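Objective 1.3, modelling of assemblies. Example input:
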Amino acid sequence: MVPPALADIERIFREEYGRAVAILTRVFGDIDAAEDAVQDAFAEAAMRWPDAGLPPSPAGWIITTARNRAIDRLRRDAARADKHALAALLRARDESRQAFQEGPVHDDRLRLMFTCCHPALGPGAQVALTLRLLGGLTTAEIAYAFLVPEPTMAQRLVRAKAKIRDAGIPYRVPAEADLPGRLAAVLAVVYLIFNEGYTASSGDRLARADLCAEAIRLGRLLARLMPDEPEVLGLLALMLLTESRRAARTSAGGALVLLADQDRARWDRALIAEGQTLVRQCLRRNQPGPYQIQAAINAVHSDAPVADATDWDQILRLYDQLLAIAPSPVVALNRAVAVAEVEGPAAALALVDSLDLGGYYLFHAIRADLLRRLGRDTEADTAYATAIDLTGNAAERAYLAAAKDRPSRPDGVADVRDGRSGD
Amino acid sequence: MKQYMLSIYQPDGDPPPPEILEPIMRDIDAVNAELRAAGAWVFTGGLHPPDTATVLRTADGDMIVTDGPYPEGKEHIGGFWIISAPDLDAALGWARKATQACQLPVEVRPMVDMARD
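Predicted structure (tokens):
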């Protein structure tokens, strides 16, 4: 047998960490005990597997080893009259009959995801917990991705886990009546992770590919576990279609390239095909929601072999639908970009000027572009300057600075991030 | 079962006039009846206004007694429930009814379980 490289262990960790933590959390009713035990098990795997080879079922080995380590540890603590440890042991005994089978209806990861995204936790805590417990990212990695000091992130995670334990946030998939609202919170967290990876809200790197990959992994998991929820499929499609353009979205020098200017040969056809298949599934179901419509808008862009072939009429109709079911100034702003293509920049500018979005850099960027196309260069320069002041992302700032210095470009496309409204 | 305290945050000042207050009190009574019927009711109390409060504290061995509520502010706890519930979702379900009845913000806090914690 070929000795497994550490790369195998790394891959198994990525694939199995969340499931192992989720199962042990159910068994012991204690997230910290579950995390410690799963980490112990992987540490043991890293020592044993290089010599002994991979066990027949690495995932099963990890879960069994973690369970045994947890029981050892809890017994030690219980012997010191730790009541939490005792309670966890008793619970594990009660759960033992069904302990290591997942429920027939719901995967344990799904329960854990609803716990992590519980509305009683703040959005920052929801995101951090999801990445930590389901993604297996270290505290240092999460802190780095969100540009906060590691002790701050550690504190955030400790506080969130203590609230789950002390306030009794349940570990289950919500009842049917509560599901739409609670699922929306889960989807929002996944999309927030994706967006943070796609356009870092500050810093120099335009994209943090690892966060996008993690969000897509969570999206695929949700789609597998909740295949009857069209918004779950819609979110996955939206992320896949957006991700398909990653390589084309930055130049060799790291500068931002607009959708209209991207080399479409560099789009990832496999991701596009997967995303478009999901969009078609959603259309057949005919229960539209905001993620599905945004995915459909992106699918229309993906259909166009060149920017000039984009079916803007269809995009505008989709934005009309999106604005009707999820009205927001940001959606209206993105819709105005489609209006510029169908009816011209003057009509779009009138719509943009009616929006109260003065604090949002894209508002000024889009206004600037429309003004430039209308030949109102002085006003365009002012709007570009405001947009540059308001964005914290260096690549977008550089793009806007270059656009500001470019002469009028009447056929340009204003939107910096087409179809990615609502964030 | 865990216990939770549901506190009503009430703006300082005069209570609303009877035509507003009476339907609110009826709604609160209905929530209490529902809590009791479900076996979730432990205790309910309404409080006199914060300017009836007295604060005691020790400093260097002396007992200091002062007039007025401990935290200064525009809102204070006007009343509370202690309920028992299997988990936070159940407690939040009761809090939703409570806040709709009293038309004021309600804070939900888990109580320390003396038997376990």
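The longest helix of chain B spans residues 18-37.
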